[in-house]
Model the fold of this input.
Amino acid sequence: MKTKRITIASIVAALFMSLCVFPTAANAAGKSCNTMHSYSTNVTPGYVWINMPSYNAGGGTGDFRCYLAPGASNQGVAALQAGINECYAAQLSKAGLKPLVKDGVYGAGTKKALAVVQQAIKNDTASSMVVDGLYGPTTAGAMRFKASDGQCRRVFA
Done:
């Protein structure tokens, strides 16, 4: 009869994997971006509106602290794809990628394009941005989306 030894290394590896998949309590709850919401941000002069992925449980305002990953298919993904195409076209081209088809499906192309965006943000801001091609609150807060004034802006400074 074979027995399986559980080592400290296997426990640490399992813990590491669980943290990679569920880095926060919100992610563990599965709060997936399921729609697009217009957020306002103050610019001089006045305000502009920016459409970006959000979570909405029905009625009320959206919540940008949500997640998108391969397999998602909804308006939130379409908003992400539009933001990547409209504000990061130069980075996609430099990486040898074509603009995304805005189909609302988070496939391998969207994941790869988002990783290019995350790398650009990391390079431009010298931040500790994780380059994994997964969309969450950290990426949402750092990413630029096209605003009502035609400029690519961040909602959350």
Remarks:
- The two ends are 60 Å apart (CA to CA).
- The first strand starts at residue 35 and ends at 42.
- Confidence is low (pLDDT under 50) at residues 6-29.
